[in-house]
Amino acid sequence: MAFSMLLHASKGDDVTLSCTFTSSNTPTSKMTVDWSYRPQTGGPPQTVTYVEGLFGFPYIKVRFTSRIQWKGSPARGDASISLVNATLNDNGTFTCSVRNPPDVHGSPTSHTVLTITPKVPSIRFSDVAVLLALILLPSAVITVFLIGRMICPRKKHSKSKAYRSPIEVTEG
């Protein structure tokens, strides 16, 4: 019976595609692990990676070269892989098939429907610093100035003193 899973990730994330299997026999050199990929847009399945034998070297399809890493441990019933730096073009269904004769015959073990979405822009420290410098700093200076004027008002000239003009009028 195949295990199905929906997996969501953001562009640029590393994604682990899980594949577990049960076998009554210890994995041997006859064991194979086959990962295939079917794009979300449809079309035939494409081989992603194929590992033959317990310590075999994986074949990795050019589309995923250097972005697929083996994460599995066949002795523990794990044939998982990791997709590094996921792109929007990776949306689709990844299928894992394990064959470990005589009891595991290569039927699909897991189906993972992967959905990659663009990253949501986040506020960076520099954005916050610019906001502080352009908005909060001038506001703080003006507030301190106004509070200072309220606490220490300017001295007013007293009107009780007689007004004297700089021009003096004399009689005669």
From TrEMBL:
It is a single-pass type I membrane protein. It is found in: Membrane. GO terms for cellular component: plasma membrane. Gene3D superfamilies: Immunoglobulins. It holds the Pfam family V-set. The chain crosses the membrane at residues 128-151. Residues 1-115 form the Ig-like domain. InterPro entries: Ig-like_dom (IPR007110), Ig-like_dom_sf (IPR036179), Ig-like_fold (IPR013783), Ig_sub (IPR003599), Ig_V-set (IPR013106), Myelin_P0-rel (IPR000920). Keywords: Disulfide bond, Glycoprotein, Immunoglobulin domain, Membrane, Signal, Transmembrane, Transmembrane helix. The keyword Disulfide bond applies. PANTHER family: MYELIN P0 RELATED, MYELIN PROTEIN ZERO-LIKE PROTEIN 3. This is Ig-like domain-containing protein.
